[in-house]
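QA checklist item 7 of 12: single-chain prediction sanity check.
[x] sequence parsed
[x] length recorded as 210
[x] structure emitted
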Amino acid sequence: MASVTIRIGLTGGIAAGKSTVAAHLRDLGAFLIDYDELAREVVAPGSEGLQRIVDCFGADALDGRGGLNRTWMAERVFSDQVSEEMRKRLDDIEHPLIYQLALRREREATAMDPQAVIVHDVPLLAEVIDAMPMRFDHIVTVEAPADVRVRRMMMTRGMSAEQAQARIRHQSSEREREAIADAVIDATQNIEHMFEHIDRLYAQWCSEAR
């Protein structure tokens, strides 16, 4: 039987614990493509993405060092007063560049290991899955109750309760994420039990790649 690459989509609610799951999968040997990292890369100073954002939103989108003014953008993109059209304009700039970079990372991984388990860590997977230029063999979502996530964002990200709740409102719902997933990881359980669940999933994926 020929070896194949297994493509996994990993998602979850903001501050649910997805980063912990992603780190464990990387420790197990998965090739991780972090879309938050890709999003930063495509708008790095001097990049095509950043220039497009400035062309679209104006010079206020830049900070004093010539990089993306993330605070300024977040106030507009995640504010209750902002229009859906403004978010769409930003997504239309960033998303195609992110997907191109993700596919490049995939090619690098498969060149090294044709049996690679490649995990696409996509926070907004439920929102963008139909527009992505790839399909997944399996999708995993990491979930925790909204009140737990709000507390985590307030403690670790310095957000107010209102800011944290706004971030949650502008993501897909737990129901929408679970609708596209074939595995749900409860991030409120004991971490050893959570890792055991991940270990079983990873062993299954590896067996499919052989």
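[x] summary fact logged: The chain has a mean pLDDT of 92.
[ ] second reviewer sign-off
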